[in-house]
Structures are given as C-alpha cells and as structure tokens.
Amino acid sequence: MLPASDKPATDSAKPRDYFATTHWTMVLHAGRSDTTRAQEALAQLCQTYWYPLYAYVRRRGYSPEDAEDLTQGFFARLLELNSLADVRREKGKFRSFLLASLNHFLSDEWDRVRAQKRGHSQVISLDTDAAETRFGREPADTATPEKLFERQWAMTLLEAVVKRLQREYESAGKGVLFMALRFSIMGEKSDVPYTQLAKEVGLSEEALRVAVHRLRQRYRQMLRDEIAQTVATPAEVDDEIRHLFQALVG
Asked: Exposed (0-12), middle (13-18) or buried (19+): which is 226, by Cβ within 10 Å?
C-alpha cells in the first residue's frame, strides 16, 4: 500500500509513447502486425490476476471443482486468437473488462462447461490447492461478490508489486536489506530502533534512512508501472490508485 504520507509520483517523467507498450493498451490497440504480442500480453495479465476471478466464482456459490473448470474455460475462451477483435471494442480498465466478461461467460456457458468432461487444459497455470487454502483463510464478509472482487484485485496487484520489488533487490544482492526494510513499504514504523536496525544490516543510521526512502520511492514507481499495465490511458492511473485503495478499506 502507498504510505499515507507519500503522494504518488507524477506521470510527467514517462515518455508519451509509454502507454503504447503497456500490456492492456497493447491488447486494446492490437493490429495484424502485433496480434501475437498482444496475445502474449493478455496471457501475462491473466496469469497475474487469475485469483480474484477464481475467488469471485467461488463466492458466486460454485464448488472448488466447478470454479476451476469455469475459470479455465473462461480463460480458454478469452485467449482464443479471434477474441482480440472483441477485446478491442471494449474500453476502460482491464479489471472492469475481466469482470464483465466473466459474468457474461458464467451466464452463457455454465451448462455447456458442466456438460463437458471435467478438467480443462491448463490454459493458465492455476494452483487451485493454494487458492483454496487462501480462499478458506479469508474472513467471512457480507459485501457483494463484486465488492470482494475489487478488494481481492487490489490485494493481488499490491502483492505482485512487492514480489517484483523483492526480486529486484535480491538480484542486486540486497535481499537481506529488503526483508529488513519491508515494513517501511506500507508506511509502518519499525519495531526495532533505527540505530539497532542499522547495525543489523551493516549501515549507518543515516544510510539506513536513505535506503528506506529509496525503497519507498521505488515501490511507488513500480506500483504506478503495474497499474499502467491494466489501464488504457495515463490519465487513468491516479484514478485507479484511488479506486484500489478505496476497495481495500471499503
């Protein structure tokens, strides 16, 4: 989550053509020359954000087995090569497009999917055992499945950003530093005094504070980059950030 005291960085540093290469805009603007890249971009987005859809299907009352079949069936339909034309007719955010498409799929395809042999091919790699464990740990909530989908989407996006940031630090040989300073990403205070924490990671206290600032700054940048992959225009990034954090507390 963005630290409450930090404002999101602006898009002014981004080149104007940045959004021509994000995943969702690549899909929306796919032409004959870049259909393969657009398909790959769509598949990558689906691989990242499959869990909120699976959880949404479960909250609609389907069993784990049926939810797996329906989720795989949905992705199989979505990732067909001839589906890009339909995708390009849609405007707005990838999140909204996916939920609307899934609802349409559930209303039209349930009987057909149930009649087929159980077990779709693995179009998207779904770890349903882990998903069920995760789903079972989520507290009971009286909110609508749609509201819970929004919340789960926000949590999935933030988790993806933190994992990317951790991999970046680990590849630079700073994995220990990342784990020591991870608390600061969310704007939380350290349980350990900075003087002691600095000694533990082999830095001066001043260098530690600089490292915390850089970690938070890099997190904010990566958060914006991740959100940019799921919206159509730069103007939507700040709105999407507000929406996601509202979903977390709503």
From this structure: middle
